[in-house]
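Entry 14. Ran structure prediction on the chain below.
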Amino acid sequence: MDERSECEIGAFFEAIAGWRAAYKVARLHVLGARTADTLELVSARIVLDVGNDTVVKAAVRAGRFEAHQILLNQQETDVQSLVRALASADGFHMVGLGRLKLPSTDQVGIFVAPPTLLHPEGLSAGNRLAVLSIGGGHIAALVSQPAADWLLKAADAPYDSLQELAMDYGLGTLRGDRALLEVVARTAIEVLAESSVVGTLASVGIFMASSLDRAKAKLGFRVLHQGRVVMRGVIQGADLTWTKRDLAVLGVGNFEVPAGAVVQCIASYAGEAHHVQWRADPAMFLNPRGAILAMIDPSGSQIRAYLQPELPVKGKAANDFEAAIAWVLWAMGFSAASFGTHPKTRDAFDVIATTPRGDFLVVECTLGLLRAEGKLSRLAARTAKVRDSLASSNMKHLRVLPVIVTAMTAEQVAADAGSAADLGVLVITSADLDEVQNELVRFPDADMFFERGLRTVQDRQSARKAQNGGNQQADSQRAAS
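Output, structure tokens:
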């Protein structure tokens, strides 16, 4: 392994060293093709987790293809050393499986990308998610399609495709034509799920592994009332009331807030923020638009049903989904207009929305994949037309953000995420829609949501360029050598 790759691996593990003790569970997920004693990896992922879930799936074998989930004994196997071995041309020998290695050639070798310590998928859910990505060589020789998918159909435990097998074994969507190894460090400290605001009392807390130092934990908070921050503060770990729960500890604190306030809770450890959540008294609305929406749908069950349709999708589910998106945007403070549900206007936009400052969202809605039916390309074209129209009206200063909203999960649409990032499109998935619904109790601030969405797009574009640039550089170096 070269010095640069060693440096990137070291940087990842150094970044999570402060809370490394929280990761009691380490699982290796692999999907590969067997050649004698060697399993060449198509996709692999090492997940570092704070939970106590040690359940793994039984192995699947279909012809050359194998999928495994292996619970790593961290007393016997050092995870950082395992990553180094897998990032080398020789790979790693594992008892019972033989040699695990990423495919590589002199022309296309193994490349360790700079770690993403605040991954966009984690940020969109309000948590710290660190990811190290290691690319291998091309997998075309390992995965011949459609033969690979049809081989899996004939397995004793049939799968429709290699993609379905990868998803089922916790590897996410296969993307690109190169092998990929990821190391994922999940959020180590969280805002306590039972945190609440009732009347004028905020009762909030932290959930973390018992192996961590309580003195290094703290709970920060921002209190918003009528759209303004009226209080900022922190409860240090030493001032929280701690109790045990299984392998975890809970630290709880209380403070007074104005009636109807919304509290942003920030769980931190070792000087780093790990998890951000909002809490408000469900009996009191600071969002007048949310209150009106609650008149129509008091329990929120109808909107949830529209935003999370049952599969397979039937009837007017697509129209219901678009309508619900427009309602939610309105409740968030946008001025929203829905065109996609009417046959005479659906070729113009699905939904278009503006902020109080005048910036625009151009929204494409889909129940499925992002590139299905050319939706991403159509969204890019519609966004360009809006920008041209504004420019011709001497309003070029107004910003336009293309948004595609899907009812699928981030993992299900991961294969299309790169294309969306390249086009500067904000991707909203089912988990993001859940977060948005939770925030509807807040005073509506469409300008803030627009700025947050714009930063997310910029972060994803930067991460995409860094990874692509690194891969191209590595390929060039290999070719030159």
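The two ends are 15 Å apart (CA to CA). Will compare against last week's run tomorrow.
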